[in-house]
Amino acid sequence: MNKYRSHHCNELRKNNVGQDVILSGWINKKRDHGNLLFIDLRDNYGITQCIIDQENINFKLLERTPLETVVKIEGKVVDRTTETINKDIETGEIEVTINNSEILGTCKELPMPVFSDQEYAEEIRLKYRFLDLRRKKIHENIILRSKVISFIRNEMNKLGFLEFQTPILTSSSPEGARDFLVPSRLNPGKFYALPQAPQQFKQLIMVSGFDKYFQIAPCFRDEDARADRSPGEFYQLDLEMSFVEQDDVFNVVETLMVNTFKKFSNKKLKYDKFPKISYKEALLKYGSDKPDLRNPLIINDISDLFSRDDITFEIFKKLVKSGSKVRCIVTKNTKDKPRSFFDSIDKWAKEQGASGLAYFTLEKNNEITAKGPVGKFFSSESLLEIMKITGAEVGDSIFLSCGKEKELVKIIGLARDKIGKDLDLIDDDIFAFCWIVDYPMFERDEVTNKIEFSHNPFSMPQGNTDKLDLDKPLDILAYQYDIVCNGIELSSGAIRNHKPDLMYKLFSIAGYDKSQVDKKFSGMINALSYGAPPHGGIAPGIDRIVMLLANEKNIREVTMFPMNQNAQDLMMNAPSEVTEDQLKELNLSIKLKK
After folding, report:
1. Per residue of the chain (594 residues), what is the pLDDT tens digit?
2. Which of 24, 99, 297, 423 is found 20 to 30 A from 386 (Cα to Cα)?
3. Distance between CA 377 and CA 389 in Å, rounded?
4. Residue 536: which of 251, 244, 286 has the closest Cα?
5. In whole angstroms, how far apart are CA 280 and each of 389, 423, 436?
6. Rounded to two decimals, what is the model's pTM?
């Protein structure tokens, strides 16, 4: 028998009553009843209540032993009385009477209690992350993460994928976020980069003749932290497939996501077959290329109506003449909402930097009229036309916003989310997946006015690649796609451009000449010149998948050892200074900015 334990702390049941057992774990809680001491002993698996009376020679020792001390308990399993059964734990029908105990690991004064899941300052939680991880909720999140990754691996194997590992030390990429650079000791003045993603390597695997690849891949990007993004590093399910079209990738990912989310959550899936929404349609109908489809609100464009003479809303009419657009959101049956509800939305919009949101409510007496601050500017006939376009009915309210396309999309999309939450329209017990497709290949930089890649430079353009109109690059769509769930982007992917001549042409539009492409992507271009199959892939974020399954709002809650918002590891004091000898060995010197 193992000298530390005969059972785990969630293992004992009524059929163990009468047995002598050994348990080891952390003292989670204590309750001192004077002549009796109750100890909740916790290990990775669960909790067992242990009890000792004051006649036992170990009583005084355990009475003064601090919480989170690691102890070994020897005792006998006994029944709990009916009134003391604890249905909240799996071992709640029994307890262990302590015969002997031994302290295995002492504990200093705790900077934060472990038995509570209440919120604590990020600095404390991350500095003492090893204590934070003992807490029930986050401990279970990390176990869930492990189980999800194991399940995904098994599912990928079932789908015929092979797991390969790609290099961590590689070359810097001119695209995407900032690289983390690693100086080379053996090649003075040169640097490796940690991979932002295994993008080029997984394509090279396809060129090498392997048909289906996957990897739970670490990725490194020197970018700012967000609630759904860890600074520094993250993990993704990286996959690539040969001889496929877009729908082949979709079928694999949908199968995987449906199986994973049904396995690890009791929430319903809104769609087993994920809807495909074009990038253009997503911006128009939802104000975002990451739409939350749990929200039933739809955005409509009514710009053309503001050329009518019977609409006298002059501010909007003038803006539309100068090139602005008008978009609106219909809220169903909100005629009885107080004025304060509408004004609060208008005030919120101004706080976001917009000029506000105009609004009115549709009424009918002898004819259709509009009640609200701007209702008087709309004739009955124009209101009927708005109702026809939007599907609005009497008793519904309409919020309107006007502005230039980019700013308008942003504010009306945020307004859709805000109104949906305020009206309690979003069902938290649903996962709503969708695909965003048909991304533009190129976009124009607003500052430099230059044409640049909008998404992934290695993507295949849509249409007949021999007859692309390269003189109109902003009209070229790509086989690029995102998978989105509940308003969170899980991943971007694409069918890849496997034709070197076409790649040179597309890169030239973005300002790269042939020599630059050959230098920056030498391995890729060279490999594609030796018979590359059509291929494509995607890389859903593991951290974001687990965050959704754990019902957490912040990715830190599902990451074992995350950094803080400033990309610092407070527990290990990283990043840290290095010695002069280390710098000399790497042929480096530090010159700090003033």
Report:
1. 699 999 999 999 999 999 999 999 999 999 999 899 999 999 999 999 999 999 999 999 999 999 999 999 999 999 999 999 999 999 999 999 999 999 999 999 999 999 988 888 999 999 999 999 999 999 999 999 999 999 999 999 999 999 999 999 998 876 567 899 999 999 999 999 999 999 999 999 999 999 999 999 999 999 887 767 778 899 999 999 999 999 999 999 999 999 999 999 999 999 999 999 999 999 999 999 999 999 999 999 999 999 999 999 999 999 999 999 999 999 999 999 999 999 999 999 999 988 889 999 999 988 999 999 999 999 999 999 999 999 999 999 999 999 999 999 999 999 999 999 999 999 999 999 999 999 999 999 888 889 999 888 889 999 988 888 888 999 999 999 999 999 999 999 999 999 999 999 999 999 999 999 998 888 889 999 999 999 999 999 999 999 999 999 999 999 999 999 889 999 999 999 999 999 999 999 998 887
2. 423
3. 18
4. 244
5. 18, 27, 9
6. 0.92
Report whether the peptide linkage leading into residue 575 is cis, meaning its omega lies within 30 degrees of zero: yes
DSSP 8-state secondary structure symbol assigned to residue 459: B
Tell me if 558 sits within 8 A of 552, measured CB to CB: yes
The letter for the amino acid at 250 is F
Alpha-carbon gap, residue 411 to 344, rounded angstroms: 15
